Amino acid sequence: MAHAYTPGLRVTRRAVIQKRRILPLKGRVLVGVGDRVSKDQVVAQTDLPGSVVTLNAVNLMGVTPAELPHFMLKKPGDRVEKGEALAETRPFIKWLKTTIQAPVTGTVESVSTITGQVLLREPPRPVSVKAYLDGRVAEVIPDEGVVVEATGAFVQGIFGVGGERWGAIRFVAASPEEDLDPAQIRPEHRGCLLVAGGLATLPGIRRAVEVGAAGVIAGGIRDHDLRALLGYDLGVAITGTEEIGLTVIVTEGFGRISMAGKTFSVLKEREGEEASVSGATQIRAGVLRPEIIIPTRAEGTDSPVQKEAEGMQIGDPIRVIRQPYFGRIGAVAGLPPELQTVESETKVRVLEVRFEDGATAIVPRANVEIIEE
Asked: What's the CATH code of the domain at 339?
């Protein structure tokens, strides 16, 4: 069964792309407006509070909560190393002494005379945000992050898994119909983004992981191959955090679907150049698309990626996103104003689509998405 998606894929050779790079907590911004940044450059940093470890000290030592502070060797705020003595009793007979050792390295958070517990906090975890794009800093959000701007090719996919990565675009397919063949993936593809035309096969993806490729871009993927790759059913979720060794982006849908001709040609024109990709996808409650961004060094007066919708017009390139024409690419050939009755016996607005092979069909307008130029 085909999946339905929200309209608005964008495939363009040149646009101004702006990406917000924001810390999870307030921290330090390391660059300023106008600075040139590289994709792997850290632009902001912060520290996440360490985890809290609880010790039931009174049970371990056999004392009352009110007595606990008298036996503590460390007080709140003191640093302690793993295995270091935190507290100990002082009996008349030394070999009856009980000592509590710190199970982790960190600081003493608190000593409770009510519960008899000692709380230790592990060291803070540093978190950094990288630029993700080769570009310039267009805006600084104080204590939070930056907006990085770049001019380049911008391609959105239908679905992806895996996080942000970058590498050189390398083709392992000669046409938009050719599947990802593991025999075409070689050791020299390490760190590259591999582009196939048709199906992202499971053996091909596993071979790409084996050689250390940064990502795989293809027209489609099978449901059962995705399940085997992840080890579980994805369901309805936000993707992008999967630890699978690379990023996978499909540009058309599920099953064996050839990559759209324009998408294939846009990527082919930039073969060998460095691109940034993200597999993060969210279908519901705020659409998030996987993306491929190939910055160019030349600056231009281009339109931003985000633009106000102008409505569907004759000649607009579209993709059908529901059966029976799921995944097919075409152009709007007609926009009848009257409502028409469809198979479900409901009256809806429709359009006439002319597919790439010249065939035409009438489909509900809700069953297509515009491929933005």
From this structure: 2.30.30
